[in-house]
Amino acid sequence: MSERRSEFEELAEAFLAMLAVERGASEHTTRAYRREVGSFALYLAAQMGTGGGVAGVEHTHIRAYMGVLFHRGLTKASVARALAAIRSWFKWMAKTGRVDRNPALLVSTPKRSQHLPRVPSLEQLNTVLNGMEMKTGVRAAEDAGSGQAGAGAESAWPARDRAIFELLYGCGIRNSELVGIDLADLRWRDELILVRGKGRKERQVPLGDEAGAAVRAYLEERAARLSAAGRGGLLLEGPLLLNARLRGDGRLRTRSVGRIVKAIAMSRGLAADVHPHTLRHAFGTHMLEEGADLRAIQEMLGHERLSTTQRYTQMTLGQVQRVYDDTHPRAK
C-alpha cells in the first residue's frame, strides 16, 4: 500500500494542475514550479508531519527553508526564484480559501547584485548573420534522402539555423515562442508573426525584411526535405521550425535551439555564454541604442510592465553621450 501524501503535497499538485490548465503555463514554467513548490511541500511535510496543514505555515517556516537552500549552496538568484514560486503558491491558496493569508509576503527577497548581461554588438551580430550559409532546396532534398540530416547534430540545416537567428534577434521573441510558431502564424501580407507568450498570451511582432527573406529560403528547403522524407502532411500546416530528423510531430524543441545558437555563436567568435535569450536581449538593447521608444520595445518584447523592459534593456555610454549632446543646453 502506498504511503498517504501530505496535504502540502496534494495542494502543490492542485496548484501545478491549475497552472497548466487555467493559466496555460508552458512546460518549462510548470517544470520550474514543480521543482520549487514540490521541494518546499516535502520540506513542510518533514518539518510539520504528514498530518500538518498549510493553515499552520508561518513566515518562519519559509525563512528556515531559505536557510536550507543557502546551506545547499544555492545562489541568491536561485533562492529568490524559489521564494517567488512559494509566494505564488500561497497567493493561490489564499485566493481559493485554503489559507487566510500569504505568509510568504513577510519574507524579504534576497538582494541580488545588479548586473547587465553581455550583449554582442550590432557589428558582431551582423557579421554572424551575413556569414551564415544557406543551402538550396535541391541540396536539402539530397541530404534528406541520403540520411545526412539524421545522425549528426541539429546544426546540419544552415537555412533553418539562419532563420532561427534572424527570428530571435530580428523579432526579439523568446525561445519557447520561437518553437511554438506554426505556419499559420505567419502573416506575410502584414509582415507580422503571431506569437504566444507567457500564459499563452498572443501578440503580433513585426517580421523584418532580413528575417522574412531567411524564413522564405528556409521554407523552400523545408518543403524539399518533407517531400523527400514522405512527410507531405507537414507541407502546408504544422510547426514552422522542424527538427533535422523529422521525428515525432517534427517540431524543433527549445533545447535544440539552445545548442544550435551556442554552437554557431562560438564558431563565429562570439562569447561562449551566448544563448537564445542573449539574442532577445540584444534586440531590446540595439533597438534602444537606435532611438526606439521604450514602450514600443515593451510591446514587441511582450512585457506586462514597463519596469521589466527598463531592467532588460541597457543604454550604452555612447547613447548617453549623444542624448546629453543633443538635449542639454550647456552641451551646445
Compute the average pLDDT.
84
**Category by helix and strand content:** mainly alpha
Strand order of the largest sheet: 1-2-3
Radius of gyration, in Å, reads 24 Å
Beta-sheet strand percentage? under 5%
User: Ends: how far apart?
Assistant: 82 Å
Spans of 5+ residues with little confidence (pLDDT < 50)?
134-154
Number of strands: 3
Structural write-up:
This protein has helices spanning 7-21, 27-48, 59-71, 76-95, 122-130, 137-146, 158-171, 175-179, 209-229, 254-267, 276-289, 294-301, 306-312, 317-327, and strands spanning 186-187, 192-196, 202-206. By secondary structure, the chain is mostly helical. The protein has a 3-stranded antiparallel sheet with strand order 1-2-3. A hairpin with a 4-residue loop joins strand 1 and strand 2. Helix 2 (27-48) packs across helix 4 (76-95). The radius of gyration is 24 Å and the shape is globular. The protein starts with 6 loop residues before the first helix and ends in a 5-residue tail after the last helix. Residues 134-154 have low confidence and may be disordered.
What's the arrangement of secondary structure elements?
Blueprint: H1 7-21, H2 27-48, H3 59-71, H4 76-95, H5 122-130, H6 137-146, H7 158-171, H8 175-179, E1 186-187, E2 192-196, E3 202-206, H9 209-229, H10 254-267, H11 276-289, H12 294-301, H13 306-312, H14 317-327
Antiparallel strand pairs: 1-2, 2-3
Helix pairs in contact: 1-2, 2-4, 3-4, 6-9, 7-9, 7-11, 12-13
